Amino acid sequence: MQSSQNHTLNKVLPKFPPDAILILDNASNQNNNDVHEVMMDSFGGAYRFVPKYSPELKPIERAFSMVRTVIRDHENDTKFSDIELINYAFHLYSWEGERGTYCYQLFEGYRNNHNLWLQEQ
Predict the structure, then answer these.
(1) How many CB atoms lie within 10 A of CB 81?
(2) What is the pLDDT of residues 66-83, one digit of tens each?
(3) Model's pTM, two decimal places?
(4) Nearest to 111 by CA among 27, 19, 23
(5) Nearest C-alpha neighbor of 22 from the set 48, 52, 51
(6) Residue 99, Cβ neighbours under 10 Å: how many?
(7) CA 79 to chain centre
(8) What angle is formed at CA 111 by the lines to CA 105 and CA 117, rounded to 5 degrees?
(9) In 3D, which of 32, 25, 29, 27 has the Cα closest to residue 47?
(10) Is-contact 47 30, C-beta < 8 A?
(11) How confident is the model at residue 84, as a pLDDT?
(12) Cα atoms in the Cβ-side hemisphere of radius 13 Å centred on 30
């Protein structure tokens, strides 16, 4: 556990402003006493776990679904190689892409909902 604690203290913690709250998912590697102890020591208790996983509420799941749809819609299109098609699909929904604003709104809505959730904690 010492290497994880060093990673947290030396790499992760300096990137957070003093009033930041670390939000963790409920991955099994984060739900043990050693990790909780490191989080308590490193973040002074300023961490929260998101509610149980609900794919339909996570914007990344919706964003990947949109990317997969583009790939499926163009899989027989001979103007793209496989790699070019994947790059095209991700770029389409990226910050610079034609549909990037839509993805941004998904993530912004999710962030706002998490801010409300944090206020209730």
Answers:
(1) 9
(2) 899 999 999 898 888 999
(3) 0.47
(4) 23
(5) 48
(6) 15
(7) 32
(8) 140
(9) 25
(10) no
(11) 93
(12) 13
